[in-house]
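Appendix B. Raw example, untouched.
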Amino acid sequence: RGDLDEARAYLERAIEIFTRRIGADNFLTAYPLGSLGRLFYDLGQPARARECLEQARAIWERVGGENHPELVPVLGDLALVCLAQGARREARIYIERALRICHEKLGPRHPDTVRSVKLLDEVLGADNVAE
C-alpha cells in the first residue's frame, strides 16, 4: 500500500505541474490523469477513478478528437469502473466505443484491441449474470 500511496502522490504532483506549465487541455496532462484513475480503481475507489478517467477522456477528445487511439485504454478503464459500480450499460457503451476506435485505427492484433475484446466479453458476461 505504501508504494501505491507514493505513486498516487507522484501522479498528483505530475498533474499539478503539467496543468500549471502547459495547461489542463494537453495530452501530457491526460496521461497521468488516466494513470491516477487506474490507480484509484486498483485501490478500490471507483468514484475517484471515474472522475480522473472522465477528465482524461475529455482532454483526449478535445486534443485528439473523438476517435483518437489514446482514448482506448481510458475507455477500457472507464468500462471496468462502471462494472465495479454496477453500471453495466455504461460499461458496454465505453467498451464498444473503444472497439470501434481499435478497428478503425489500430487493427485486430493490437494489444489494445485484444484487451478491449476481453473487456467486452467481461461486460457481456456481467449482462448475462444480471439477467
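End of appendix B.
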